[in-house]
Design brief:
heterotrimer, A alpha/beta (about 260), B mainly alpha (about 290), C mainly alpha (about 350), A: about 260 residues, six-stranded mixed sheet, B: mainly alpha, two-stranded antiparallel ribbon
Chain lengths: ~260, ~290, ~350
């Protein structure tokens, strides 16, 4: 059992995610090179950068899709480097995907119920023989999922097939499903991609709302500067896999280096 | 000496597998589908040879007619049954192909009236004897045809415009389409080449054992398919390698008395083992789904 | 699968209709049988149907819910038939050829097949789609060849295994009890959190992993359970025969089972049940009608129907046609697989009044 050493920020808040010198190399290409992150409890942290900067690769490292070539990272002090995606989720890292990945043939509520799978125990044996705990747990799955759907204003679509939801609602459902796994850290990969301004605004409200309600820490990748500037407290900017700048949002966004990377000279 | 004989026979039957496997692998590479009915095209080719032989008695004409008929048949099947399903789930396409295989077998059974005629005119008898060592003419012919087919196909893919377009389509169909390649035409060509090869393989099989049944192509088809998978499906050199490998293993296994009855099990076990070690076959490319 | 009955106050009678129908049919024939009004050809047909239902519904779980194609189902059945048959032959001498022997051999045959199912599930963890299809096909062929070529003392070799044919006209009753058990286990599993997990793997494996679903466990589980029931069907089959031949279990038989699953509608256990019944019934009936040269027409017919059904159900170009002329619009609400109406547009249209909306 790896030992857990809690780390705290200067203001006394716990550091939920600490990444130390994360690197990954594909062949000769360093997709992520020496990335360090420190995200405190309840923080809304943004990861920005031009296309191909390695943002999604960082997510894939943090969720176990890839194993880092070097470097480590810690969730609430526990070293999770090299664990599988399933373990990462069980330890408390949930994510959404850039290209939405829902369970298309399940209904909206069933998608969230799948997310709750590890939260409410009920063994296969109990399900097959319909023992009392099966019924109890199924009711609990249903009720807790419905509650979660209400937070995202998706409850009226609960019996729709996920594939039939409009795009913006699919993105929200993906967040709801991730939230159902009861994460400590939520990773959102371009949650506003393809949304119109109204939907983006609505999404910003939901993100800030769930952060308050569930007291969760969020790391998000985003291109939409309005969203980033509007809700993130801190930012890291990636360019060609390396960190270009990081710190308070307002400072980072006015950093000439960052502007250069984004807009060019 | 026994081992050498087994090896040469293995190379020969492996050559036949390789020629059939080429059809599987090219279609898979280009159309991303498993043409389960490919083995039955061989058998239909046999039926055509049978009918031409009964009418005209000319083996060469029979083979030619079989090649032409199989090309037309392969292309027609693609247009009628597979093309509507392009873009559908791979399971649906596979099931259609399996049904197509059954359809061809039933049609042939009706045509053959459930009989098993012998096409003795196709039989290639005689052998080269070097001391006690004996190689059948049919074995030599198969080896020669295999080499010619492999070289010709490699050159075609590498140097002809159509061949290069085929490579492009197998790499990325959408990009190829955007580059102005007529992907439908390329798929048609692929089916045509695959079916022609199937007809040739049919002749190679019948010149050794000239008994025609409606399931003539089934087991060789399955094995050639296994060979294509062993070599890495979608890869032309892979199909050749897989076919030869499977043929040699089969022949050597037959020559060992203890293993002989289990030969089929040995062949399929090799398939499973290779796939477990290399999930995309020996020369196949690993494709990871991008997250 | 897409409907969720929890939270609903009413008993979802539709969930139990298959049990009720099967039970009623079995009860009807049991009464006939007890009063001596049943022909041997009828009991034999019933046995065949029961075996087909078990095979189709267990394969349907793999193909329709896990989304993996297995072409080796007959291989598992083969293991069950030979091992169960052997056990029953041995036990028949000491325990007599009664229920006890049957139960023990069913369990042993099923468990042995399940073990092999777990083994074949292992490649399923690494291979997908077409690759897995060929591996399962290869597995079935390996099983068949090995069993056929083992020394005659074991499984009878090429002569086939002699089994003490269960000369009881009530065998079909036991067969139908096993059908009910099989359907209950599969349905209860699929209509639970485990079933949702299995379906989520089919829909999007990467997302399932990221959602904490233990993909390895569920894949192995589905293959194991499915193989178990194939093994059970095999034991039942051995009981209906006095001599079991391994040549019967080649890949064509696996494909025949797959045909039933596809005809019934992938992802519908009830569909598999109906298709298994119809296909078996037709097979037996057509065999007596289509004799000689005509017998071939049967396969031709199946192949054509299958191609047409698959193209109708899956061709992207036929989407509009499908929505206009489908089973539901023609036969109303007899069949209950729910589909969802078009979602309201992004601006958040009114809540659907009837959230069990039907497709057009």
């Amino acid at each position: 059992m790896a030992e857990v050493k809690k780390i705290y920020a200067d203001d006394g808040r716990e550091i939920v995610l600490k990444a130390d010198h994360l690197c990954i190399q594909f062949g000769g290409l360093k997709a992520v090179d020496d990335v360090n992150l420190e995200i405190a409890q309840g923080e809304l942290y943004g990861l920005i950068g031009p296309n191909g900067a390695g943002k999604t690769t960082v997510f894939n490292l943090l969720t176990g899709v890839y194993k880092p070539t070097s470097g480590r990272f810690f969730l609430c002090g526990e070293d999770l480097t090299g664990k599988s995606p399933i373990e990462m989720n069980k330890k408390g890292i949930a994510r959404t995907f850039q290209n939405i990945r829902l369970f298309n043939n399940l209904t909206v509520i069933e998608n969230v119920m799948v997310g709750l799978s590890n939260q409410i125990p009920c063994s296969m044996f109990e399900s097959i023989f319909r023992l009392p705990r099966h019924k109890k747990s199924e009711r609990e799955y249903y009720e807790r999922s419905l509650e979660l759907l209400k937070v995202f204003a998706l409850d009226e679509y609960k019996d729709y097939k996920a594939a039939n939801l409009p795009y913006g609602k699919q993105r929200k459902l993906e967040i709801a499903r991730a939230m159902a796994t009861n994460p400590k850290l939520l990773l959102l990969d371009e949650p506003a991609a393809g949304m119109n301004p109204n939907e983006t605004q609505e999404l910003m409200d939901v993100i800030t709302f769930i952060r308050e309600k569930f007291n969760i820490t969020i790391l998000l990748i985003e291109h939409d500067m309005r969203l980033v500037g509007g809700i993130c407290e801190k930012l890291s900017v990636l360019n060609f896999g390396t960190e270009l700048a990081k710190g308070e949002t307002s400072k980072v966004l006015n950093d000439p280096e960052v502007i250069k990377a984004y807009i060019g000279e | 000496m026994d081992f050498l004989t087994a090896l040469i026979n293995g190379l020969s039957s492996g050559g036949t597998y390789a020629i059939i496997a080429l059809g599987y692998t090219m279609v898979y590479g280009i159309a991303k589908m498993l043409n389960f009915a490919h083995g039955d095209i061989i058998m239909i080719g046999g039926c055509v040879m049978y009918s031409v032989l009964s009418a005209k008695g000319n083996p060469l004409l029979a083979i030619l007619a079989a090649v032409v008929f199989c090309v037309v048949l392969g292309v027609t099947i693609e247009k009628l049954a597979y093309k509507p399903l392009r873009g559908a789930a791979s399971l649906a396409v596979l099931i259609t192909a399996i049904s197509m295989s059954y359809l061809l077998q039933s049609v042939a059974q009706i045509y053959l009236k459930s009989g098993t005629p012998a096409l003795s005119a196709l039989r290639l008898e005689g052998s080269v004897n070097i001391g006690s060592f004996r190689i059948d003419y049919s074995t030599i012919l198969t080896l020669a045809v295999t080499i010619v087919v492999m070289v010709a196909l490699s050159l075609f893919v590498k140097y002809s415009k159509t061949g290069r377009a085929m490579v492009a389509v197998s790499e990325d169909r959408d990009a190829a389409l955007l580059m102005g390649i007529n992907t439908n035409f390329i798929i048609t060509i692929t089916f045509a080449i695959g079916s022609a090869l199937a007809a040739i393989a049919g002749y190679l099989m019948l010149c050794k054992a000239p008994i025609l049944t409606n399931t003539l192509g089934s087991m060789p088809g399955i094995k050639a398919f296994a060979a294509a998978v062993i070599g890495g499906i979608g890869s032309i050199p892979g199909a050749m390698l897989g076919g030869i490998l499977l043929g040699v293993v089969e022949s050597i296994s037959y020559s060992i008395p203890v293993l002989a009855p289990f030969t089929e099990a040995v062949e399929f076990s090799i398939l499973i083992i290779i796939l477990l070690v290399r999930p995309s076959g020996i020369l196949g490319k690993m494709r990871r789904e991008k997250v | 699968m897409s409907r969720n009955g929890i939270g609903a106050k009413k008993i979802q009678w539709k969930y139990y209709i298959n049990y009720i129908v099967i039970f009623a049919v079995a009860a009807f024939y049991t009464v006939l049988s007890l009063t001596g009004n049943i022909k041997q050809s009828e009991t034999s047909l019933l046995e065949k149907i029961a075996i087909a239902i078990i095979l189709a519904s267990s394969l349907g779980m793999v193909v329709g819910f896990l989304g993996e194609l297995s072409l080796g189902h007959a291989g598992f059945m083969c293991i069950g038939a030979f091992l169960g048959g052997k056990v029953s032959a041995i036990l028949a001498e000491s325990l007599g050829n009664g229920i006890l022997t049957l139960v023990i051999s069913v369990i042993i045959g099923g468990v042995a097949a399940a073990l092999f199912g777990m083994i074949i599930g292992l490649p399923a963890l690494r291979l997908r789609g077409d690759y897995l299809a060929i591996v399962t096909l290869a597995f079935g062929e390996i099983v068949r060849t090995v069993i056929m070529n083992l020394p005659e003392g074991l499984f009878g070799g090429t002569l086939g295994l002699k089994t003490p044919r269960f000369n009881n006209k009530h065998l079909f009753i036991i067969a139908f009890i096993l059908v009910l058990v099989c359907i209950a286990v599969i349905q209860n599993l699929l209509r639970s959190r485990h079933g949702r997990a299995i379906t989520s793997i089919r829909d999007n494996e990467i997302a399932a992993r990221a959602t904490g679903i233990d993909v390895t466990k569920y894949k192995l589980l589905v293959f194991t359970i499915s193989a178990f029931f194939a093994g059970v069907a095999g034991v039942l089959y051995s009981y209906t025969q006095s001599n079991v031949q391994s040549t019967n279990f080649d890949y064509n038989y696996s494909i025949e089972i797959l045909v039933m699953v596809v005809l019934g509608g992938i992802g519908s256990i009830n569909g598999s049940i109906i298709a298994a019944t119809l296909v078996t019934f037709l097979n037996v009936k057509l065999q007596t009608i289509l004799t000689g040269d005509l017998a071939v027409l049967q396969n031709l017919f199946y192949a054509l129907i299958l191609i047409l059904i698959v193209i109708y159900n899956n061709a992207p170009g036929l989407k509009g046609f499908r929505e206009k002329y489908n089973f539901k619009s023609i036969f109303g609400k007899i069949f209950k697989r729910k589909s969802v109406a078009e979602a309201p547009n992004a601006s958040g249209g009114a809540a659907p009044e009837n959230n069990q909306g039907e497709e057009n």
